[in-house]
Design brief:
With 348 residues, the chain is mostly helical. It is built from 14 helices and two strands, in the order H-H-H-H-E-E-H-H-H-H-H-H-H-H-H-H. It has a two-stranded antiparallel sheet.
Length: 348
């Protein structure tokens, strides 16, 4: 088991380095840097002035050197600019160049500075990720139990009226994206034009004081999409288990249907949906980008949109890298959990 985890950690580290380099490369393409220079300097800057601005701030270095500096394994640049001013990557506001550390990257806890929010990227990401974590927690509390109940009820008796009804509802929710269901919910339940203004609060106020009125619509908008997918996977697993030989043996012995479902089928049927549930967490980070923007809930997804829209390169890079690590971490937990749930994996 320990060797299995070490192998997974090694693969996770290698994958993280590859993915972060790809994200770093894409965010540091010249059109993005040119737009950054004109945003921070002057939109009427000539090509020579743009090149000078980028060169004075280390953006003209080769991509591997810049990636190493951002990661914190290569010393930060110290450049005497063409304008006569000396700049150092590690000399943050209020720190003299001579007193600045040599290394200042992600490994040292330095995530850079946001040009839009005028604050450290680390504190911005931590604050917004906590808000999204609160949203995701309640989404999981609604999505996972609801999906498992629907999937188990549909899979207990394959082909029954209950199975067909619940399967159809699951397909409909899965086929409806968040930006459609969110708009429909707002129009029906939160708009005074229709007359059903049941939810009077706004998701912005839920950031500090979440309650049913201001938090229910964004939660149910995200949860509905995932409920259908998990329910379909649970239903397929439950259907397969109910046709297994040991279930038939239990029926021949006269075990009641309720005991067959609860004591024999349910435990084995939930092994496959466990992986699907864990993989929903990275998907939630993508879903909140739409829902948080739609409901103006200023969490992790909202910050991603703001960073991309305002060409905040370092903040966009930080948010993207955190998303990469969340995906890899949930996959690692999923692999380890599956090993514990399925003894055949441990034996192999």
């Amino acid at each position: 088991m320990g060797l299995f985890i070490l192998r997974r950690l090694a693969v996770m580290l290698f994958t993280a380095l590859c993915l972060t380099f790809v994200v770093f490369f894409l965010t540091n393409l010249y059109p993005n840097l040119e737009k950054l220079a004109k945003t921070q300097g002057n939109f009427r800057m000539s090509e020579a002035e743009v090149s000078s601005w980028l060169g004075n701030r280390g953006y003209s270095d080769n991509i591997f050197s810049k990636y190493g500096q951002w990661l914190g394994v290569v010393p930060g640049y110290v450049i005497e600019g063409t304008d006569g001013e000396t700049r150092a990557r590690c000399a943050r506001q209020g720190v003299a160049i001579d007193d600045a550390p040599r290394f200042c990257g992600v490994l040292q806890g330095d995530w850079g500075f946001s040009t839009v929010f005028k604050d450290g990227n680390g504190s911005i990401i931590a604050t917004r990720l906590a808000l999204t974590g609160k949203l995701m927690f309640w989404v999981l509390m609604v999505m996972v139990p609801g999906a498992l109940i629907i999937g188990v009820l549909a899979g207990m008796r394959e082909g029954s009226r209950t199975d067909r009804s619940l399967s159809t509802a699951s397909i409909i929710t899965t086929a409806t994206p968040e930006y459609v269901s969110g708009v429909i919910f707002i129009a029906i339940f939160a708009s005074s034009a229709v007359g059903l203004k049941w939810f009077k609060g706004t998701a912005t106020s839920a950031m500090s004081d979440a309650n049913f009125e201001n938090f229910f619509l964004p939660v149910i908008t995200i949860a509905l999409y995932g409920i259908g997918y998990i329910a379909r996977m649970t239903r397929a697993s439950m259907t397969e288990v109910m046709t297994a030989q040991y279930i038939r043996t239990a029926r021949l012995k006269g075990v009641s249907f309720a005991n067959i479902v609860m004591k024999h089928a349910l435990r084995n049927a939930l092994i496959a949906p466990f992986t699907v549930i864990m993989l929903q967490i990275p998907w939630l980070l993508n879903g909140v980008v739409i829902v948080e923007t739609l409901f103006n809930y200023k969490g992790f997804g909202w910050v991603l949109v703001q960073a991309a829209g305002n060409n905040d390169v370092e903040l966009l890079l930080g948010v993207s890298v955190v998303s990469v690590f969340v995906v890899l971490l949930t996959q690692l937990i999923s692999d380890i959990g599956y090993v514990f749930l399925n003894p055949r994996i441990r034996i192999s």
